[in-house]
Amino acid sequence: GTLRAASLGLATARVDSATMAAAALDRLAALVRPSDDAQTIVGADELQDRLRALVTALAPTTEVRVTAVGAPKIPEEVALAITEACGEALRNSILHAPAGRDVSRTLRMRSTPDAVEVTVEDDGDGFDTSRVPPHRLGIARSIVARMRALPGGDAAVRSMVGSGTTVSVSWRA
């Protein structure tokens, strides 16, 4: 399970098992290695580029909208958490899309001088968030807990049966 979670970045790519396993092991090794990037700052433009690359890799028909009214200095760990949480939201949207129906997706990034917020929305079938079994960790760990573990980080998942899903991740400097 841990290796699969670590390899989710490649889960939708058409690669062989050995490549996915190697990528998963590389990601796990990075988690236990002391980071030299702890003080690295990412600009809003770079975060936007990372999110666009994520959309291109996972769900190329997703509309991307960016509104920038200034931009905070974003620590690397925050940029990584935002990108990974949005990746999980996109993968969930793809995985749970209704068979035989096109689902529209939109990723919106908004930055201000002291905050960044990214939302991933779809018009899929939606679901009852109160009925997600506790053993399903995609939303609870990969999105919400990941963002809330950051000082200034937060996340919310809003969905209703028949109304699509909105995942919001945010960070305040």
Summarize the structure in short.
The protein is α+β, with helices and mostly antiparallel strands.
What is the element layout, followed by pairings?
Blueprint: H1 2-7, H2 17-32, E1 41-42, H3 44-58, E2 63-68, E3 74-75, H4 76-95, E4 105-112, E5 115-122, H5 140-148, E6 153-159, E7 165-172
Helix pairs in contact: 3-4, 4-5
Count of separate DSSP helical elements: 5
Q: End-to-end span in angstroms?
A: 33 Å
Radius of gyration: 16 Å
Strand order of the largest sheet: 2-4-5-7-6
Shape: globular
Number of extended strands: 7
Query: How are helices and strands ordered from N to C?
Result: HHEHEEHEEHEE
Structure class: alpha+beta
How much of the polypeptide forms β-strand, as a percent range?
15-25%
Mean model confidence by pLDDT:
84
- Helical proportion, percent range: 25-40%
Explain what you see.
Helix 3 packs parallel to helix 4 and helix 4 (76-95) runs antiparallel to helix 5 (140-148). Strands 2-4-5-7-6 form a five-stranded mixed sheet. The model is unreliable at 10-14 (pLDDT under 50). The protein is of the alpha+beta class and 173 residues long. The chain contains five helices and seven strands. The radius of gyration is 16 Å and the shape is globular. Helices cover 38% and strands 24% of the residues.
List keywords for this structure.
173 residues; 5-stranded mixed sheet; two-stranded antiparallel ribbon; 5 helices
